[in-house]
Please model this.
Amino acid sequence: MALGAAVLLTANAAMAARSQGDDSAAKALVSKALAASDIEAEAAPALRLEARIRSQFDDEALHKGKLLWVRTRAGWRHEELTLAAYRSVRISDGNGVWTKSTEDYLPFSVFLAERAANFLRWLREAGGEQLSGPQTSAATGETCVKTVSLSDPLTYCFDPFSGNLSRVADTWWNVTFRYSEYVPFGARSFPRLMEVVRSDGNVLVEIHVVRLAKEKKPDSQLFLPVKGAKKQPAEAACGKIVEARLLKMVQPNYPAEAARAGIIGVVKLYADIGADGVPRGMWLVNSASPVLGQAAVNAVRQWRYQPRTCETTGEKLPQVQNITVVFSPR
Model:
């Protein structure tokens, strides 16, 4: 019996064909939650958000960091995140984004932290998807809907009393994003506690908001690009973004020890494809065994991509990539 590895590739934002159906009740839930929490709405005041971050994966050391957002009514944004030795600063005026970070890739822990913190994006994205009819969870009483237009469905759940988003189950990344302890911000509310929880119950990332306040006079110095920052076009200014395309694939080798032991299964990888088309920051999201996981990582390190591209400017952009490798008998 021959053994081999098959590879499945999906971009983080890739979608399957949209299903048809009436999802108005589900969309109403999403719209209500977004209206209640959209601190970035056109009429919302300038704001300052400060938060503490804690991150721990398996037996790794506990990492601490912080998050700072300052946003003006004119659309300027200053976003700063530190976690352990990683630090990034992002300045945006709505048309362009200036970024500087201590690494040339996005670590998986930072990816999860940013994904959790930008929870309003969940709601905006849900509004553009085909959704299932609302279902009530017998265990929690939450009202939940699922995407039916994504290859890996997302489940959005809402608090039955407030209507606020309470959690998003993300099947591909094998985590659930939880939102709780909502606090008022003007006429809206925002979660003070944001968590990324693995399917086994372990909290991988915790973000605790310690300050959320109106910024009456934002410091203009915060919106000056830091020295050495790279400018990229804002996605909205690109017209269309062409997703990364694999140019060179090295087939993973089936480890001899795995073959002798009859080990087969699936490996799921996180990779950040840089503007040069090189995958970096790889992380084993899930693996049937450590030896298969290492074999997959060794192969993917040698892959090369046509980078994600802004159609309007031709600018090359980084992109998070989902990679699934299946080790099985041929």
User: Anything to note?
Assistant: The domain at 24-237 is CATH 2.50.20.10 (outer membrane lipoprotein receptor (LolB), chain A).
